[in-house]
Specification:
It contains two helices and 41 strands. It is 5% helix and 42% strand. It is globular. Strands 2-8-7-4-5 form a five-stranded mixed beta sheet, with no helix packed on it. It has a five-stranded mixed beta sheet with strand order 9-35-36-37-38, with no helix packed on it. It folds into two domains: 143 residues, Sandwich (Immunoglobulin-like); 327 residues, YVTN repeat-like/Quinoprotein amine dehydrogenase (Methylamine Dehydrogenase, Chain H, 7 Propeller). The chain is mostly beta strands. β29 and β30 form a beta hairpin.
Length: 506
């Protein structure tokens, strides 16, 4: 009996056969059909940030260049699977605030991948960082040559004076207001638009601190508050027994803050549970600084205290001849702090021994700023001066005649400070020469914050202000264009980078 003829293959069966054959060939050759992709260890950070770049979907055993913008920063070689891990790139010191691109093309062809990186500097606490130098080391837009171009970017009207120094985090500024508003505000850092507000029970003179998506701030209603940074929802509050004017410092999951009830507190940042407290002899209006496992803080009992950050045990104290409302800063093993007796003190951070002191013409409640071997501090009352002193010797370098209780901020060669004469000033950090000023409607007792080419400050005229360069869109490149892979030119002098091993989870 003759066998029946085999039916002809339909077009669909031919397609399925060819597809299966192609997949088999790809699997056999070890080549992935996936498009190249890269991941970054972080999505944003200040200039100089190190970024670890990992990739997959590339050709096996080929060179891949890692670019930040158009600069070739590293050369890696993929493994047999077309992957590489933790290649090092960095955002250069000159990278302006805004979106930039990390690009990873295969060498000698146009195949590659790109991911955006947001260059952004956060000023998270009163001191900038917990150790308290009030220095932004990443500012690259404003400098002594450009700061004269500052103009009003926006202002936001609260319903009371703004003494609280702004914190800047993730494109948002956080600031408090006094009687009768009693509120903490979250404002869009670029536009000033209100995102949320939270009303406490009394004045908010404390400056907010931001850490891990939480805003910490004190109020004259005796409480320390922890608020969700995105929504303003209350997470917890801790009741002291008197006003909290001190600005919190957050370090290693702990919130350190003083109270008018004479105590310094250490609170669990997640829960608000008290870890320890230390009782001084009078009000603690000073804001703590935390460095190398030690909390430094002043008290109205005329003393500067150094406390063990883990236990609250007293390590040393130094007695001045006046109240210490100035907030200490710590730099290069030295604690700098002002006193109501008119002196700025430099103390050994380990022992509390006096290194030097400088006598101003008034009281010093201003907190110092330290940058490049110079200490900047304001003097109030009849003093009418901002001083620049040699950080090692206390020798006067220059002074500028204004009266202030506000704390200076330093960024990229410029000192910013508010004054009782209603102005905010920008001074040349090297010479003290006036570079720029702006007249608000009342005293400026608030300490300025400088980040991403913008100066933020509050005034007794009930406004929070933001200043940026008038022609910023033309003078400052706020974001880089996405590079075309075909136009990038590899650096043939680069040697193959050693890739950083992925840390073990154990």
């Amino acid at each position: 009996m003759k066998s029946l003829p085999r039916p002809a293959k339909t077009p669909s069966s031919v397609f399925e056969f060819c597809t299966a054959l192609l997949v088999a060939c790809l699997l056999f050759s070890g080549i992935s059909s996936a498009a190249p992709s890269i991941t970054l260890s972080k999505k944003s950070g200040p200039p100089t940030s190190q970024i670890l770049v990992s990739g997959r979907g590339f050709e096996p055993n080929v060179g891949v260049d890692i670019y930040f913008g158009t600069k070739d920063e590293a050369l890696v070689v993929t493994n047999s699977k077309g992957e590489f891990k933790n290649a090092k790139a960095h955002a250069p010191r000159s990278a302006y605030p805004g979106q930039h691109w990390v690009t990873a093309p295969e060498r000698n062809n146009d195949k590659g991948a790109q991911e955006p990186f947001l260059v952004r500097t956060d000023w998270l606490q009163f001191h900038f960082e917990a150790d308290g130098t009030r220095l932004n080391p990443y500012e690259n837009v404003l400098n002594p040559k450009t700061v004269s171009g500052l103009g009003l970017r926006w202002s936001y009207k609260t319903r009371s004076a703004v003494y609280s120094a702004p914190a800047v985090a993730n494109g948002v500024i956080y600031v408090g207001s006094s009687w009768p508003d009693f509120s903490i505000y979250a404002l869009n850092a670029k536009t000033g638009a209100k995102l949320w507000s939270y009303k406490t029970g009394f004045d908010v003179l404390s400056s907010p601190a931001v850490a891990d998506g939480v805003v910490y701030v004190g109020s004259y209603d005796t409480n320390v508050y922890a608020l969700n940074a995105s929504t303003g929802i209350l997470l917890w509050k801790y009741a002291t027994r008197n006003n909290v004017e001190s600005s919190p410092a957050v370090a290693n999951g702990v919130v350190y803050v003083g109270s008018w009830d004479d105590n310094v507190y250490a609170l669990n940042a997640k829960t608000g549970a008290k870890l320890w407290s230390y009782t001084t002899g009078f009000d603690v209006q000073s804001s703590p600084a935390v460095a190398n496992g030690v909390v430094y803080v002043g008290s109205d009992d005329d003393n500067v205290y150094a406390l063990d950050a883990s236990t609250g045990a007293l390590l040393w104290k130094y007695t001045t001849n006046g109240y210490v409302r100035s907030s200490p800063v710590v730099a290069n093993g030295v604690v700098y702090v002002g006193s109501g007796d008119g002196n700025l003190y430099a103390l050994n951070a380990s022992t509390g021994a006096l290194l030097w002191k400088y006598t101003t013409n008034g009281y010093v409640v201003s907190s110092p700023a330290v940058a490049n071997g110079v200490v900047y501090v304001g003097s109030g009352g009849s003093g009418n001066d901002v001083y620049a002193l040699n950080a090692s010797t206390g020798a006067e370098l220059w002074r500028y005649s204004i009266s202030t209780d506000a704390s200076p901020a330093v960024a990229n060669g410029v000192v910013y400070v508010g004054s009782w004469d209603d102005n905010v000033y920008a001074l040349n950090a090297s010479t003290g020469a006036l570079l720029w000023s702006y007249a608000t409607g009342a005293h400026v007792e608030c300490s300025p914050t400088v980040a991403n080419g913008i100066v933020y400050i509050g005034s007794d005229d009930q406004n929070a202000y933001a200043f940026s360069m008038k022609n910023g869109s033309q003078q400052v490149v706020a974001a880089s264009e996405r590079p075309d892979l075909r136009t990038l030119r590899p650096d043939f002098s680069l040697k193959v980078s050693q890739q950083i091993p992925t840390p073990s989870p154990h």
